[in-house]
């Protein structure tokens, strides 16, 4: 039996694999400037798993003049070390993700180098903390340039010194210029974490969203109410129980909880690769059904809360109102009021580009699904109609053509792409297909804009690959 590989040996394999598969190697982009200031070929906003995946895909296509920025400190990018409160990922352990099918870069290769093949064989699902560690390793060994602690603001149009369109971005680190921008900004990338207005009106000391930073230690001995019955709602209920809450009550709108995980069904190449190519009616039909079901919780997630006798799940009991009374949150339901010391909303996100600082200069002209497609009455869904309607390259499209043509150079790689492409920017399982597809959209735009220069380069190309012997050549 071969001896187990070390992490150092695996990293040597990574270097070799990337070198062996580097074709085509030729650089093809030239530096641009605006008023003498350098222009990036691509700026990726968001350094979590989606930002790393698309940056890696771009680097493989020799888009070397790129930068990834993230507003979070190092090791706090994305949800895994912050509000992802599950013990394990929900995806299967043998998934491929940002590795883009490079064997030495897969999670399994990393895990086996760290803990051995037998440990991976025993593993049921990937521990969340290990996935976070893996992503940091992936970022390091691939050499993706990431600048932490930089938040992005308003994006607007600009032009390079040679007349090509580009974009300017207001950031906490000054104005940045880029020919292309990829927004890999996660769940709230084209909107906000949503909770009912009557819950939002409660004092902050009485409520939070599941994506907020919650000091669960302060909930010890308290009665906690959780709205929602998706996976994240259960995760937050579990952490509250583990922190010593007196009681935790989870309120589900449906009379029957969601015990099916639709994302397991759609993990096949046909759907992940080609849903975005299908007619709007089929894209809407599939995704409105899937998103209408929400993300199901697993047996492990349920067992985590079921083991506590002070956990109660209320079926068919949505909240219809809320008020603060006597220092507590009184939640109104069709079956009477319920008083809790703290309320947590596991209610997901709402699409609304007007709420996104980066899109302040163009949000009103970003086409959404409601602008482009009218479903049959029985399939209508106002929430889903707010998702952006993206081009084939994941770029924003104009609601009114000609007003903001520069938004074609802003590409979205997050949950907001779900209605157009399925779980392309929100699922690890989809990355090996969706990240290269988005990267190809970026490189297509860069290539198209450079056609005159590239044609001139072709005409001027004069590198000889053979030396003729004049003595052996007869001129007619």
Automatic annotation (TrEMBL):
Domain of life the protein comes from: Bacteria
Q: What is this protein called?
A: NAD(P)/FAD-dependent oxidoreductase
Q: Name the source organism.
A: Neoroseomonas oryzicola
One matching Pfam family, short form? Pyr_redox_3
Key words, A-Z: Oxidoreductase
> What Gene3D superfamilies is this protein classified in?
FAD/NAD(P)-binding domain (3.50.50.60)
Picking any one GO molecular function of the record gives: monooxygenase activity
Q: Which InterPro entries match?
A: Auxin_biosynth/cation_transpt, FAD/NAD-bd_sf
Record has Oxidoreductase as a keyword: yes
């Amino acid at each position: 039996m071969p001896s187990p590989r070390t992490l150092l040996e695996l990293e040597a394999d990574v270097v070799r694999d990337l070198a062996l598969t580097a074709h085509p190697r030729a650089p093809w982009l030239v530096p641009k400037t605006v008023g003498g200031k350098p222009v990036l070929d691509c700026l990726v906003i968001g350094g979590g798993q989606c930002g790393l995946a698309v940056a890696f895909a771009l680097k493989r296509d020799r888009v070397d003049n790129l930068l990834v920025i993230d507003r979070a400190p190092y090791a706090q990018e994305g949800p895994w070390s912050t509000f992802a409160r599950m013990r394990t990922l929900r995806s299967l352990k043998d998934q491929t993700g940002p590795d883009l099918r490079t064997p030495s870069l897969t999670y399994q290769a990393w895990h086996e180098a760290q803990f051995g093949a037998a440990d991976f064989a025993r593993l049921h699902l990937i521990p969340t903390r290990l996935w976070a560690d893996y992503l940091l390793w992936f970022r390091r060994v691939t050499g993706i340039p990431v600048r932490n602690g930089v938040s992005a603001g308003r994006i607007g149009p600009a032009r390079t010194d040679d007349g090509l369109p580009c974009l300017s971005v207001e950031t906490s680190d000054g104005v940045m210029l880029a020919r292309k921008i990829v927004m890999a900004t996660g769940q709230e990338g084209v909107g906000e974490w949503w909770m009912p207005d009557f819950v939002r009106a409660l004092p902050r000391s009485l409520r939070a969203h599941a994506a907020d930073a919650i000091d669960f230690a302060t909930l010890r001995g308290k009665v906690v109410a959780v709205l929602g019955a998706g996976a994240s709602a259960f995760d937050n209920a579990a952490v509250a129980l583990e922190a010593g809450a007196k009681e935790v009550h989870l309120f589900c709108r449906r009379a029957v909880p969601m015990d099916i995980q639709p994302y397991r069904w759609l993990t096949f190449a046909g759907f992940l690769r080609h849903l975005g190519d299908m007619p709007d009616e089929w894209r809407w039909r599939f995704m409105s059904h899937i998103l209408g079901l929400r993300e199901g919780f697993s047996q492990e997630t349920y067992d985590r809360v079921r083991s506590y006798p002070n956990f109660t799940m209320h079926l068919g009991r949505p909240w219809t109102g809320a008020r603060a009374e006597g220092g507590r949150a009184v939640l109104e339901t069709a079956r009477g009021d319920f008083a809790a010391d703290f309320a947590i909303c596991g209610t997901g996100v709402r699409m609304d580009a007007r709420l996104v600082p980066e899109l302040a200069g163009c949000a009103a002209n970003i086409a959404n699904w409601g602008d482009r497609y009218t479903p049959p009455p029985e399939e209508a869904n106002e929430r889903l109609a707010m998702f952006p309607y993206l081009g084939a390259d994941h770029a924003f499209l104009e609601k009114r053509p000609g007003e903001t043509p520069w938004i074609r150079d802003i590409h979205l790689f997050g949950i907001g792409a779900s209605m157009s492409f399925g779980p392309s920017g929100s699922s690890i399982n989809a990355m090996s297909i969706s990240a290269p597809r988005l990267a190809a959209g970026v490189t297509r735009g860069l290539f198209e804009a450079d056609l005159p220069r590239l044609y001139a380069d072709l005409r001027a190309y004069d590198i000889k690959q053979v030396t003729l012997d004049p003595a052996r050549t007869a001129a007619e």
